TrEMBL record:
Biological processes, Gene Ontology terms: oligopeptide transport
Protein family per UniProt: Belongs to the major facilitator superfamily. Proton-dependent oligopeptide transporter (POT/PTR) (TC 2.A.17) family.
Protein name from the UniProt record: Uncharacterized protein
The species this protein was found in: Tetracentron sinense
Pfam families: PTR2
Taxonomic path: Eukaryota, Viridiplantae, Streptophyta, Embryophyta, Tracheophyta
Amino acid sequence: MEGKMSWSVADTVDYKGFPADGSKTGGWVPAALILGIEMCERLSTMGIAVNLVTYLGGTMHLPSATSANIVTDFMGTSFLLCLLGGFLADSFLGRYKTIAIFTVVQILGTGMLAISTKLPQLRPPPCNTMAISECKQANGFQMGILYMALYIISLGTGGIKSSVSGFGTDQFNDKDEKEKAQMAYFFNRFFFFISTGTLMAVTVLVYIQDEVGRSWAYGICSVSMFIAILIFISGTKRYRYKKSLGSPIVHIFQVIVAAIRKRKMEFPSNVSLLYEDSPEASRIQHTDQFHFLDKAAIIAEGDYEKNGCSAPNPWKLCSVTRVEELKMMARLLPIWATTIIFWTTYAQMITFSVEQASTMERSIGDFQIPAGSLTVFFVGAILITLAVYDRFIMPLWKKWKGKPGFTSLQRIAIGLVLSAMGMAAAALAEAKRLSVAKAFGDNNSTLPISVFLLIPQFFLVGAGEAFIYTGQLDFFITQSPKGMKTMSTGLFLTTLSLGFFVSSFLVMVVKRVTGTNDGQGWLADNINNGRLDCFYGLLAILSFINFGFYLLCAIWYKPQTPKRVLQMQSVVNGNAAEEKC
């Protein structure tokens, strides 16, 4: 019996609800099955997003700025719905069921999109003129079907992404040194799998969209997700399932409501008098930041139920640990806010940058590079940066500083700087492209300038993503409370969502401020008649200003020190004092 118990993994159960046996569940094989779902999700979502702007302009005959906003709104909604997926996973469904259900939702969405691009009744008739403004735009019904398909896909993406990384880490026991090392390896490879899925999307899938047909490409997305869900379900008996700790959103509101109710009460003379009922091993030390929230832990008359229950009403009295969990989440918010601008610059790589590429010379011999496939340089920059960081920078940094690589905040800072430089490079490249367009007139469908001029902006922003995505994922998971990991992952993914929405907002404002009655301005219907270089320059300036705010927030941020670490430090300091005596 004792030997059998030694294999059980704390806080986890198997598919039957019994304590998980470490020898039969979890580890790398189940985690790999979960990674397959994420890779196929990236293949579908990015395969649609990176080339959608050309479909909206070339087939649905929509203006340039409108097409860009539809793409950014689609991507923004996908990541915003991660909060809904995280809430459902934490409160009702669990991560396994959330992934399974929302994968089916995404299969339905991509299938519907394949049908909408196949049927001629669901798109406007083709036109023979080069001016999109003179073509018949898609009507309300045609756009309604397209929107429905896109937002069903968004719902599926939100449910999958909110849970897949957390469910993957559930397969490893962080109290076992061997499995803890495997978990670190899982985090390092998680982003690699995402990038691999994106690479396949911007090369193979975009080529199929342009050369074979979009309905075929979107059909492949549905089939790949269907195969992925079958593989995922096949591992049901091998997975470890974390026990639910209740909805973190409810816990947060309980602290806020209790603090507001007791806002007029005086603080006790000693913080030890504040209420605490959490087990000793899981307690979080009291901190002085956001001091007003501590009032939720002041014991007052009426906090306990009248029926004689020993537990207090959680809407009236919360433990210090529960209050500190909210404080930990609140400390993340300034860092969260200052990373949104990166994803605004990222949005340009799959919208306006693709439109730039569609006007430029893209031939290599007899092969014509699809405009959407230019993002291969973006993904290539991510993979190269990850490889260089893993193989060269981390070993050198460890030898020089004694630390295994940059901290999460340092990686985020590097990503912000690289993205600002990317927008500056994009402004210079667009200025050159516009000068060629002006010299050769607006009627040229393909300008005599190489598309490889855009490589610096793709490479700089791509390298920036390699640093900022891994930095954000590490920061939001490691610096959040134990019971709020899924929620903090959703919080991280909302920076992507808001970045896309900010992009849509900026496009709307810039178009309104700089536009004229004939549709010209910085963001003209035809980008050859606009000043996209000025728009990129504006983003570069905003990015550098935002970086200054980020530095202030990073200096202000103070990570929570676990109680066990504090106790070990006290023991070490005590031993040192005894040695001196």
